[in-house]
Amino acid sequence: MKSITSLSSDFLVIRGGRRLRGRVKVSGSKNASLPILIASLLTEEPCIVKRVPNLLDVKTTFELLNTLGAQVHFEEGKAFVHAQALNSYLAPDHIVRRMRASILVAGPLLARFGRAVVGMPGGCSIGARLIDQHLKVFERGGAIINVKEGYLHMEVQKIKPVEYTFEVITVTGTENALMFLSRCPKRSVLRNVALEPEVMDLVEVLRKMGVEIEVEGRTMVIRGREDLAGFEHEVIPDRIEAGTLAVAGFLTGGEVLLEGVRIDHMGAQIEKLKEAGAKVEILGIDRVKVCGDGRPEPLEISTAEYPGFPTDMQAQFMVLCTVAKGISHITENIFENRFQHVNELQRMGANISLRGRTAIVHGVERLSGAEVFSTDLRASASLVLAGLIAEGTTTVRDIYHLDRGYEGLEEKLNQLGADIERVKDANTAG
Ligand code: EPU
């Protein structure tokens, strides 16, 4: 396995004003890959995960699996994970701090070994991001949880079946609960679950391993088994990367053919693109062409759980609204602090004001290049999009956020005709 890249301060220099044209293949989903890779902890048998994107959060997940004692091999998008025997139940603080999704190891470790010690995931830049719902499911299943020296110490003798109604809809909370219950043979019921395609992809994997899961509306009924099998699975396409590339094509007045997508996962985004004036041609379940011409129409966007408009696309669509022909309103309902791109977009000439959870965006004729800083993953994608349409040159700093969640975004954009240069941090170059 390649060595793990340290956090770099590489930056991107974007010369705006190029129309994007051509075809591009969308990568496998980051947020589906992470729980699926971690699900391999549930079995002694080897597991193969295909179409895994080569990005920082995936490498962090490999590092975490390695730390626990699993064998990992990654080659050309194919991950081989074998957790035959583990030598640790501890997800160290320094990894959890880098990637909050590390909390996902708790469910499988408790299910298989009855023990897990996980660094306490603190707040993060987009919001408090609590994990109380994960812990409530573990406790209902008989786990005893203590916090000692910044670590969550969890133990369970024998997992009891659980009936639980989530108080908020949570993606990783649902995933952790499913993995926790997957070796319990008695019937458990989870209500008010998340139904994001990434959650359903994990459900598919757990079924391949031998877990019975019925899904009806927002209710899941789970019957696990102790001897879970290894699996081979290809993760779903990344609907957020696809959406980001679609917005790029539209905004630059270009013509972009996205290949290897799942149109049925992109409904809310496609609807908003059409409302904004994009020409969207669906060429099959896995191919869509997006064309743009002229300034976008203003939009009303309100983020919601799937199948609603994804919070992970809010920042990218805000860029579209900054140059729209009128006033747009964007309400963020999932995270309480996911507007940090607003300040940076203002530096580029955007006219945005915030009222509580709503951003009011007055469209301007054009943005102008500036030096801007990434604050989180999707915010950094929005700054890249802004750079593509801005007059002059934009420098996007702190792009390790971008590298956490996109597989070669600037390479894909360049392949479509963008002019983006990555300048290596002197300390990590080479
Ligand atoms: N929440 C609670 N208690 C909990 C769990 C969540 O109150 O126990 C609250 C959160 O504070 C938040 C809301 O519920 O306000 C939704 O959070 P959720 O748990 O669904 O988010 P997550 O599982 O931590 C995943 C994705 C995020 C994505 C969100 C929402 C992964 C690894 N991460 O996070 O992806 O924004 O679901 O769809 O799957 C990204 O890729 O950029 C990203 C942030």
Automatic annotation (TrEMBL):
Catalytic activity field: phosphoenolpyruvate + UDP-N-acetyl-alpha-D-glucosamine = UDP-N-acetyl-3-O-(1-carboxyvinyl)-alpha-D-glucosamine + phosphate
SUPFAM superfamilies membership: EPT/RTPC-like
One Pfam family it belongs to: EPSP_synthase
Pathway in which this enzyme or protein is active: Cell wall biogenesis; peptidoglycan biosynthesis
Location of the protein in the cell: Cytoplasm
Active-site annotation: 124 (proton donor)
2-(S-cysteinyl)pyruvic acid O-phosphothioketal modification, residue list: 124
Main location: cytoplasm
EC number: 2.5.1.7
GO biological process, one term: regulation of cell shape
Binding residues annotated for UDP-N-acetyl-alpha-D-glucosamine, in chain numbering: 100, 312, 334
Residues involved in phosphoenolpyruvate binding: 30-31
GO molecular function list: UDP-N-acetylglucosamine 1-carboxyvinyltransferase activity
Keywords associated with the record: Cell cycle, Cell division, Cell shape, Cell wall biogenesis/degradation, Cytoplasm, Peptidoglycan synthesis, Pyruvate, Transferase
Gene Ontology CC terms: cytoplasm
Domain (Enolpyruvate transferase): residue spans on this chain: 15-413
Statement: the UniProt record of this protein carries the keyword Transferase: yes
PANTHER family for this protein: UDP-N-ACETYLGLUCOSAMINE 1-CARBOXYVINYLTRANSFERASE
Family: Belongs to the EPSP synthase family. MurA subfamily.
Described purpose of this protein according to its UniProt entry: Cell wall formation. Adds enolpyruvyl to UDP-N-acetylglucosamine.
Name of the protein described by the UniProt record: UDP-N-acetylglucosamine 1-carboxyvinyltransferase
Organism field: Thermocrinis ruber
